[in-house]
Amino acid sequence: MVATLYINGAWRQASDGGAHDVHSPHDQRVVARVCQATNSDVLDAISAARESFDSGVFTSWSFNERSALVAKIADLLERDADLIARKESDDTGKRFIEAQYDLADVIATFRHFAALGLKEHGRSVDVGLAHITSRIVHEPLGVASLIGPWNYPLLQIAWKVAPALVAGCSFIVKPSELTPQSAIALMKIIEEAGAPQGVANLILGPGSVVGAPLINDPRVDLVSFTGGLTTGQTIMRAAATTIKKLALELGGKNPHIIFADADIDAAIDNAVTAAFLHSGQVCSAGTRLIVERSIHDQVVTEIVRRAGLITLGGPDDVMAETGPLISKSHLINVSLYVDKAVAEGATLLVGGKRSELSEHADGWYYLPTVLDNCTSEMSCVQEESFGPVMTVEVFDTEAEAIAIGNDTVFGLSGGVWSQDAKKAARVASALRHGTIWVNDFGPYRPAAEWGGYKQSGIGRELGEHGLGEYLEIKHIWTNNAPSRSGWFRDHE
Ligand code: TXE
């Protein structure tokens, strides 16, 4: 059965009947066949969103009513969590248990924004004049294009859909063409929960085919996008024509700094997780290890040993610790980064090639890789390979560690390990990244803002700001005792 588009409250085929297969990165079997929208389908979806927004059918709901809708969606997601997790692990190749963790995070996201909506009241401003009422009100921003990536498909879309619904926006969701199934399931749930017709729309297909109207059309007010830097730059250029609001999360090149006075055992264990979780396909992956020279050999030897032990496998392999890369082209890209780094002088200590196990022959499995003797100039250090590739650099002083950690155009996240609390706090403060972990790496919470400095993006998701991205702020000044302004003369 072909999964269809959802436009203006109806499930429908693409206008030209187009569809494409989705393949498992684990073994390349076809896991789904989905419609591929045409340009006119996208325009229909934008029209539906615009008309529903302008009609007031959803904006007239109170924040409390919209919060209740979002809470209901969370309940329905909980009901269907394992079914959706299965679709997600089919599409991404990630272990089913990891997809289940992701679904728990998706549900927590909807619950966070449902609760936040209940606290949304705007505010009054005391302007010091008894006859003036001055109110700041928060209004839905309008029509939003919500474009998601393939690494955490439903989670990244949830970070956009949940606040958009609480705010009262109408929207068009476009998941990655590689991983569309969980977004389709979410749209069915939004429909079941009772969102008004035309508020939530779903477009399927590659960004190169269906993306242009989503980022160009003057009827779209906001584009919220998570994905690669190059696509982010394309979106920013397109959005400039009509000055659309932008929320961009474009990945990172995240420094992970270990001082000699750290709890070395915990630091090493976390460094392995930070770099190789989900085979490095994580925007906040700690793939750039920056280690104090005196402990370099000890730390790197142990990380290399641990990396060599990591068991790769498919969604249902109970022994597997991480899975395949998303696609053949991505695997080629990752290996090119490694080959180039070696050519530039890096030392390959482990990995650096595809898995040669027969059970991985049909999948995009790349071995956890550690590159030593790296320098800031190498492209593998500066650019996101988005694979299981850790680069190692050394430092001698605190200032040098900070300088290396900030020597990147990105600024999404970073970690610092030291048992000297004052030093750790100084480094955390000096690093120009949106999230810093001290003696930890990776945790996030829906209540805490997430986003990047510098070229890692614009705006913040989650937290309170994550709702603010979908709201306009209006000041309403009411004069309760009107009188003449008296500014201009009304006589000769
Ligand atoms: O992402 P794209 P790709 C990084 C990572 C990866 C690189 C490229 O480094 O190697 O990006 O991955 C849609 N108009 N991240 O090529 O192209 C596309 O269909 C509108 C980091 O897969 O950015 C998909 O839905 N939409 C990242 C989404 O954009 C367009 C997670 C992301 O795809 C479009 C993923 C267009 N012109 C990759 N072109 C993170 N920040 O976590 C593409 N798309």
UniProtKB/TrEMBL annotation:
Pfam families: Aldedh (PF00171). Residues 11-476 form the Aldehyde dehydrogenase domain. Belongs to the aldehyde dehydrogenase family. This is Unannotated protein. It comes from freshwater metagenome. GO terms for molecular function: oxidoreductase activity, acting on the aldehyde or oxo group of donors, NAD or NADP as acceptor. Pathway: Amine and polyamine biosynthesis; betaine biosynthesis via choline pathway; betaine from betaine aldehyde: step 1/1. SUPFAM superfamilies: ALDH-like. Keywords: NAD, Oxidoreductase.
